[in-house]
Write a structure and sequence with these properties.
Low-confidence stretches: 368-376, 443-451
CATH topology of the largest domain: Heat Shock Protein 90
Number of helices: 16
Strand content: 15-25%
Number of strands: 18
Mean pLDDT: 84
Shape: elongated
Number of domains: 3
Strand order of the largest sheet: 7-6-5-8-4-3-9-10
Radius of gyration: 30 Å
Largest sheet: 8 strands, mixed
CATH architecture of the largest domain: 2-Layer Sandwich
Distance between the termini: 83 Å
Length: 504
Amino acid sequence: MRFEVEGAYGLKTIEIAPHAGALLKSLRGFGYSPETALADLVDNSISAGAGRVELSIDWNDGDPRIGVLDDGPGMSYEVLEEGMRFGGDEDMERGPNDLGRFGLGLKTASLSQCQRLTVVSNHAGTKASMCWDVERVIRSRSWCAEADTFPEPFEHVALPSDTDGTLVALERMDERGGLFGLDKEGFFAKVRDVREHFAMVFHRFLDGDARRIEITINGRAVAAWDPMLRVHPATRPLGAGRIGVGAQAVYVAPFVLPHRDRFTNEAEFSAAGGPGGWAERQGFYVYRAKRLVVAGSWLGLGGSREWTKDESSRLARIAVDLPQSADALWRIDVRKARARPPAALRGRLSAIGGQCRDRAREVFAWRGGQVRATTPGKDPPSPVWNEEHRSGKRRYRINRDHPVIAELLDSDAATQRLARSAISLIERSVPVERIWLDISENVEAESSPEAVDSLLVDDLVTAVSAAGAGRKPEDVLDGLLRSMRIEAPAVRRAVLEKIGTSSE
């Protein structure tokens, strides 16, 4: 670092070099987890043009070691030396597919997890190797890297001697990293976290939406996980488009994901939630050069009261694609794990996010609404409750046109008066807050759509039996089930059995 000082004989400069050991210790504390640190290393491989990246995350009898091997073009000694420098050339132009930014990722990500980083690279028949050793830097008090040093072999990867490629080796893990001090079970649980993280942040490379990349961890390929669930027939795209102008222009695509009832089983529903679960994974997904940077956040939007990750909005996910040139505008951090939209876009993003949250809330509350088409020849389902908006407030009223309610209100005068009083009493006394609290606290324990509720069956039997003459019980029951958004064959069979009608 150089300072300019105005002296008696003119301007002179003073160079003040940072203490190597102290600065290196600080650079190790950027807050990487094992999964974010290793993702940063994969970024380097993708930027280098690799088509295959292999990771060996070895237990090594409680002394973990990690090797990251790619089949990219490799580096000459001069290029490797520049790559191992802390802080890259600020004047170097980065291509549109370059996932780096600060010239720190390889070093800070690796040394956040270990004390010894070695890079070995084959390029055009020549092998180059260089190593940063934290203890050596502290001991020598200088930025001295080791050259021509090679790590011990890894369990799942090895750099071939006759082809181009690069091997990054992380050794001597310590308490700063997330793999130090774990028992064997905890270690491999962390390996699963890495696999899930890779499936999410690199899904566009893994599924071929961007340039296809193959990634393996300990010999097993990583499969892509699309946060938007585009392949699910009940996912609702809300209309994508570009917002902003010039360098601030970004592409935004909001989605409302399917209600729990739209999944075939619990395992499929849980997998769709993603790492951390449904509530954690809601919000905006910010992509930079096709790589996921922010995996579910409301980005501080929401006006005077910032949006939080509520259960009611857990089905809302919004993809935002920004170019690599927008890093500074979006304040992308060194770890590529955080972003903040520029002021000029916050209004538009808030409007899009608000609409998506509202639609997600409707699907969450009404079990998917009218996602599926009405069966030909059948009457469209009538909702039991109608939502009204008055003076900026929501009010829920029982639908007087619902077949069961309408038939009740067509009874004799005394029954009509009693029915209207009962309906009004129900509307005014629904414990909305209590219901919402129960759902929020026990959202993952919702009953399966196949569960048979005996009270529900009895109520449906009563309603079907009270239907007017000339109407087939099966048609009356199907209409009731559609109006209640219930798709449970077991419930239908139980009702028909009770009223003595075949379920076939």
